[in-house]
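User: Okay, second chain of the day. Same drill as before: sequence in, structure tokens out.
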Amino acid sequence: MNRKLTIYISGPMTGLPAEEYRRRFDVAAEVLGKAGYRVVNPARGWPHRLYRLLGYRLTLLWDLWTLSGCDFIVKLPGWKMSHGASIESCWAYHFGIWTPPRQITEEIYRRLGTKLPPAAAPASDSNNRKKKKDNHAQSS
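Assistant: Same drill. Structure tokens below.
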């Protein structure tokens, strides 16, 4: 039996009007759902209501626990300026939770009227660094 891959939506919420951040998260959820993902939308449902009961810190811990069970994370515009979304991004990186294919994120950003930043250049692999080090040692 094939299971749907699960994707967590991460983005700024604190300091934004609820209507605005919910709209952004809902657009992302719609695109991701149509792409065949099972979507975790922290801006909707009972986990979002935890904030009123538990406060920021415990809600963020709940979000990180939820993110831990996901296959992917999608980062909405402004995520780098959001304390919580930045923590979620670091958490995802350290636990091997990657971003979905670029075309999916591009569609979300397009629907939100924002341009996706250019992709980062690939990091050089450790073998190339080792070869350079070995070549330098031989020439000395």
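The beta strands are 6-10, 38-40, 72-75.

User: Thanks, on to the next one.
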